[in-house]
């Protein structure tokens, strides 16, 4: 689409392709959400959307992507990729920014369908959007956060070089719970081999960057 070129943007790794979802991709992602994202006794999200019934989880997944597309501005954007592994949609990986041209800071968030857990996909898809942030968009820092009992997410952050950045407190299912903030600087980032960014240049204005501006 000429007027919304972000739909052509892709990030590739040795095993994965991250892309903005087609309608068929959204159907597959919604099916994954309906099948389950995590153990029901756990809650890794500050907004407990996965507590809904399977059909509502599926619908809310589609609605969320549509809302993020319609709300996109150069000043505040959320780029929601689907992660494709061996030809199958495995989950979603977000990278977001507010006043990115000034702050040069991006945030990330993600989930994987349960049948894709335990294969290192979460680490690889986070590394993919960090490659986009640092090497494609010229970010200076990237942030993440996870509940202190979300050991898998925290392990991904540690593996990729994030450092502690404080604690936030939330109400989770009616109980007090802490999230650990994490921050990664450009100086601590090194792109793994075999990573690529495709069709980024036409998208730069949508990220708040003029022409090929990076810093």
TrEMBL record:
PROSITE patterns, A to Z: GNAT
One annotated GO molecular function: protein-N-terminal-alanine acetyltransferase activity
UniProt entry keywords in alphabetical sequence: Transferase
Domain N-acetyltransferase: 16-187
The keyword Nucleotidyltransferase is annotated on this UniProt entry: no
Name listed for the protein in its UniProt record: Putative succinyl-CoA transferase
GO cellular component terms attached to this protein's record: cytoplasm
SUPFAM superfamilies documented for this protein: Acyl-CoA N-acyltransferases (Nat)
Originating organism: Planobispora takensis
Signal peptide: none
